[in-house]
Amino acid sequence: MLVAGGYGAVGAVVTSALNAWFPGRAVPGGRDAERVRRLGGVQVDVSDPDGFGRELAALGDVGMVVLCVEPPDASIARVCLERGIHLVDVGATARLLDAVAELSPIAAATGATAVLSVGVAPGLTNLLARRAHRDVGGARSVDITLLFGAGERHGADALRWTIAGLAEPVRAAPRLVPLPGFGTRTAYPFPFSDQHTLPHTLGVPDVTTRLCLDSRPLTAALFALRRTGLVRLIGRPRAQRRVARALAGVHLGGDGFVVRVDARSGGRHAAYALTGREQSRVTGLVAAHTARALLDGRGFPAGVHHIDELPALAGLPEDLVRHGDIGLLRRAAPTGGQRS
Ligand SMILES: NC(=O)c1ccc[n+]([C@@H]2O[C@H](COP(=O)([O-])OP(=O)(O)OC[C@H]3O[C@@H](n4cnc5c(N)ncnc54)[C@H](OP(=O)(O)O)[C@@H]3O)[C@@H](O)[C@H]2O)c1
Fold first, then answer.
1. Is residue 221 predicted with pLDDT exceeding 90?
2. DSSP assignment letter at 195
3. How far apart are CA 139 and CA 152, in angstroms?
4. Cα–Cα distance between 216 and 96 in angstroms, integer?
């Protein structure tokens, strides 16, 4: 197994969990020759598909790639699926997931399976959305709310993704949402990929994902950027990297996170909430559990699938609760869904 980005905030958790279950079989990959040498990994660059393919060939018997860094396009997924190599992808950018989903006929032909939307958001959000959707007998709308800890040490790639997301246009309004352990918070629409893919996988017409941080001042400051001209400046990659570096030094909160999902249909309402610590770590654990289930071959059809399309992974939240990795999984108190 090759874990691309395998010594980053998410990838290091994947590598170590897989090596605990399958000793010596998970190899971390990244661009830094010195780190790779120290960790006994391989030097790979996900922006160089030809080089990536050569590295796979050199490694020999690679049955699976876990992508823990975002490539520029779907070329790395194509390289894996054409060779019949399974893929687990923690990416959260809708455009890239769509491009990988188009490779499904290739995966079906080679017998490979790709699992997309793996992590906390997308990931656990997709699984809870499916439950809430089922509970109301088919939702007309799903609202996903995330609270992330501003004190967590997020990886550089995840921060870059978040900054880029701030610069994207949004269509929905902020909402006041009660979140277990954090009171009622204003959460702002944010371009997580779950709201883009769930309308297709669940058939729910209206899905919105909103985000807030545990620190109220930092949430207000971050989303105030949207209302100013500054947001246009951070649309540029160099500015994104600068803002990401500045944010990496800010630790105003804790490392707890909350996921809440509300599904509605007519007068019916179902809601689930889940809490945990260190969303990068839990993302890595979701990816590791997914990779393990895929290796075990438990009911995974060939082709490209989002996590919520695979019944074999529906019980993943309970697996994490059993291991103490997420503290709580419960039906949340209903909310009227007030506009803020
Ligand atoms: N689904 C979810 O819930 C979820 C949650 C958190 C994060 N994520 C996603 O997970 C990804 C990783 O986040 P993270 O927090 O772990 O970031 P990170 O700590 O910056 O880790 C990224 C890793 O990838 C390597 N890398 C960077 N560019 C690369 C390239 N071109 N080729 C090969 N390796 C490269 C880095 O090492 P080198 O620089 O040495 O190459 C590093 O080890 C992000 O894309 C983020 O959006 C998803």
1. no
2. H
3. 33
4. 31
Which H or E run contains 187? strand 183-189
Helix or strand holding residue 76 (H, E): helix 75-82
With a 6 Å cutoff on the Cβ, whether 191 touches ligand 1 is: no
Task: Please report the pLDDT score of residue 325 as a whole number.
Answer: 81
| Residue 145, strand partner residues | 210, 260
Task: Please say if the pLDDT value at position 245 is more than 70.
Answer: no
The residue whose CB lies within 8 Å of the most ligand 1 atoms, and thus the one to mutate among 68, 160, 168, is 68
Q: Are 36 and 4 in contact (CB under 8 A)?
A: no
Q: How confident is the model at residue 338 (pLDDT cuts 50, 70, 90)?
A: very low
User: Quick check: 127 and 316 in contact, CB under 8 A?
Assistant: yes
196, two tokens: 């883009």
Which residue's CA is minimally distant from atom 1 of ligand 1?
A: 119
- Ligand 1 touching residue 161 (CB < 6 A): yes
**3-class secondary structure, 339:** strand
Q: Kindly report, residue by residue over 93-148, the tens digit of the pLDDT.
A: 999 999 999 999 999 999 999 999 999 999 999 999 999 999 999 999 999 999 99
Q: What domains does the chain contain, in order, with CATH numbers?
A: 2-119+282-318 (3.40.50.720), 120-278+327-331 (3.30.360.10)
Query: Is the minimum distance from the CB of 117 to ligand 1 under 6 angstroms?
Result: no
CB 128 within 8 A of CB 261: yes
Q: How far apart are CA 190 and CA 244, in angstroms?
A: 17
Instruction: Please report, as a single letter, which amino acid is at residue 97.
Output: L
Ligand 1 pocket member 11 (CB < 6 A): yes
Contact 215, 253 (CB under 8 A): yes
